[in-house]
Amino acid sequence: VTVGTTSFDDLIACVSAPDSLQKIESLGYNRLILQIGRGTVVPEPFSTESFTLDVYRYKDSLKEDIQKADLVISHAGKGAGSCLETLEKGKPLVVVINEKLMNNHQLELAKQLHKEGHLFYCTCSTLPGLLQSMDLSTLKCYPPGQPEKFSAFLDKVVGLQK
């Protein structure tokens, strides 16, 4: 789970709640890494025989975590960098929309990429249900090496071009 350099306490609280952790483990995941940025919600890391929760604020690069991940849950930040990086690595992606920031065009971007079959998106309140119902095998690979296409789309969505 990544929130970038911002804080998205609702997402961290939602995904680290006991019922969410139980659901994640029941889906076959044995490790959850939370990158919490500037957030004030700081879950206590733990490790059991079957599940590990790791928590950190920042790293120079998320590349290694993304490379190892079987699923990435990301905020839809302004730059959408972690989303693009995840898609280009061919990793399944769930984008969680921060409803408190609805003016930053994250929803249009997530909707478009979902329509094209590249990711799933939800809000904090619908995340547990989505995790239960999503079929990762339905996701299509994002064509790598086309950042200009992504940038052009992003520019259009945020109104920088017609």
TrEMBL record:
InterPro entries: Alg13-like, Glyco_trans_28_C. GO terms for cellular component: endoplasmic reticulum. Its main location: endoplasmic reticulum. It is found in: Endoplasmic reticulum. Residues 1-140 form the Glycosyl transferase family 28 C-terminal domain. GO terms for molecular function: N-acetylglucosaminyldiphosphodolichol N-acetylglucosaminyltransferase activity. GO terms for biological process: dolichol-linked oligosaccharide biosynthetic process. Keywords: Endoplasmic reticulum, Glycosyltransferase, Transferase. Its EC number is 2.4.1.141. Belongs to the glycosyltransferase 28 family. This is UDP-N-acetylglucosamine transferase subunit ALG13. It comes from Homo sapiens.
